[in-house]
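Input set for joint prediction.
Command: fold jointly, output C-alpha cells.
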Amino acid sequence: DIQMTQSPSSLSASVGDRVTITCQASQDISNYANWYQQKPGKAPKLLIYDASNLETGVPSRFSGSGSGTDFTFTISSLQPEDIAAYYCQQYDNLPYTFGQGTKLEIK
Amino acid sequence: EVQLVESGGGLVQPGGSLRLSCAASGFTFSDHYMDWVRQAPGKGLEWVGRSRNKANSYTTEYAASVKGRFTISRDDSKNSLYLQLNSLKTEDTAVYYCARDHANWGQGTLVTVSS
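C-alpha cells >
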C-alpha cells in the first residue's frame, strides 16, 4: 500500500497568515493527489484534485502543487472559516490512502 | 444536484452484522464507481472499498482490514449502494461515508460496535 506522510499534524496560525501543509507519498503517484477539508461533524470536502486543480466553488486562497512523491497544500491568507482538519489522499493505486491529517487552529 | 444519503448505522455487539445503505440521486448512478470510506471517532479517514459500475462488471475492491468480512453491493434500479458488515470488531466503530468520484460525499452513518 502507498503511505501518505502528512505534516504537521497540527498547526496554529493567525488570520491572514500563509499556511502550508505537506504530504509525501511512499512511491511515485504522478499527480494523483487530492486535498480535503473536514469540519467537525461534517463529511470531507474536496478542495484540490489532481494535485493542483481547484474544485469548483472553492476560494482561490486555497492551492496545491507537486507531483511524484512530494505535494504541498497552501492557504494564502488564513480566514476564520478555514479552521478545520485537512487531509491529503492518493488515488494512484488501490487501496486509496489518506494522510494522517492536519488540525488547523487559529492563534 | 448530487445527493448521497447513508442509513442503517447503529449499535451492534462484537461478532454481529449490520447492513448500511446509501441512496443516491441527482446523477446516473449506474455510470459511476462508488466508494465507502470510514472514520473512527477522533481519527483519520480510511478507504473501505469500491464498487465499479456495470460497464466494469460491478467488480469490487476492499481494504485489507475488512476483506472477507465486508461486502459491497449495489442495486442500480434503486440507485442504491450497500455495505454488508459481518463479524464486526470494536475497531470497526466509525462513521461510514459513501462517496462518488472523491467530490461527492454523504453525511455519514455511525456504526458502534460494543458489548
